[in-house]
Amino acid sequence: MPGPGPDFEPGPAELRIDLDAIAANWRLLQARAGKARCAAVVKADAYGLSAARVAPALWAAGCRSFFVAHGAEGLSLRQCLPNAEIFVLHGLSDQLAAFAAAGLVPVLNSLDEIAAWSARAGAAGRPLPAALHIDTGMTRLGLSEASVARLAAEPERLANLSLRLVMSHLACADDPAHPMNREQLDAFARLKRALPPLPASLSSSGGIFQGAPFHFEMVRPGIALYGGRPLASAPNPMAEAVRLAAKVLQVHDVDTPRTVGYGATRQVSGGTRIATIGVGYADGYFRSLGNRGFACIDGIPVPVVGRVSMDLITLDVTALPATRVGAGTRVDLIGGGVDVDALADAAGTLAYEILTRLGPRYRRVYVGAAAGEGQDPAPCAGAVSSG
Ligand SMILES: *Cc1c(COP(=O)(O)O)cnc(C)c1O
After folding, report:
1. Tens digit of pLDDT for each residue in 244-290?
2. Domains of the chain with CATH codes
3. Of 43, 247, 362, 366, which is the active-site residue?
4. Contacts 24+ apart (CB under 8 A), 266-272
5. Number of neighbours of residue 68 by Cβ within 10 angstroms
6. Which residues form ligand 1's pocket by a CB distance below 6 Å?
7. Cα gap 315→268, rounded to integer Å
8. 368 CA distance to ligand 1 centroid (A)?
9. pLDDT tens, residue by residue, 82-102
């Protein structure tokens, strides 16, 4: 068809990650946290955005403490950040010796883990760093109230450890009106009194916006660093850090009523224009966005019509002038008018899951002063990075 011609570089969809925006988000969160130190949660490869890229940018912005989930993530991050404090949320793995050698700080979640790490410290002949996690309502990881009482009664259990932090985790951080926040705050304040005085940490992204009592000595944001909304029901103050753009492969000018996509779930009438994009659920574009999601062209929303295929989606672009959309036209799938949280709402999920599913077929471009514009290889030799 005679099209307006490409306005976007051919090739796979482009995933553009703005390291300056992530650094600016960290600075904003640090400012909101007041006297508390702002750490950064970079588990799951920095929520799918590459810890090897994101963590050095945050270090350059002034962040000194990082949280990962797995021991292997901690070992890999150590290669990027030789001097950072790296907490491992899952506690001890089977790599105890490597942990100690890399100076990782396991977040100990049970009396058994405390005993194992303490024994390792005894064998090493030196105290080893550790954090303690108290469960105040997640019922997921962390010391129970009974275990905390046991530690209070038997403080020698902690003798070999160089304790850096006591922490807990909010179940409803994104909803300040939820009574659970207050309950967990009170439980945390009460339970940590049974332990030696330590810097404390309770808040992930949402808790930072719930006021000073939630800040303690350290806050641990993840999603807000990457541009996700910290609170579900308030305007999002974070800068957009992720932009996913693809090009139109083909446009169909529908002249008589017909259906679009697998299952023929969508009927369209004559006069509709359908643009096909080479991104699908194999790329982490949620299948639940079929007939629900939206993209943007020039900031104008264009709805997903029909089902999401493995490698393709179809958009109703009738709202745009026919001369504007043709093969090669740039379409924003995340960012550029497509708010990642709004997209997640449409998909029935969270921005967290949208980000951590971003697929391997995208061409990743890291921008910002911290990135070295456009450069692609990971800056940390030996570090595991996706993409
Ligand atoms: C993932 C996680 C965080 C970060 O949560 P966000 O909601 O992404 O800010 C903080 N603490 C713990 C224990 C976590 O598991």
Report:
1. 999 999 999 999 999 999 999 999 999 999 999 999 999 999 999 99
2. 19-226 (3.20.20.10), 241-367 (2.40.37.10)
3. 43
4. 266/291, 266/305, 266/306, 268/305, 268/316, 271/318, 272/316, 272/318
5. 27
6. 41, 43, 89, 169, 204-205, 220-224
7. 11
8. 25
9. 999 999 999 997 787 888 899
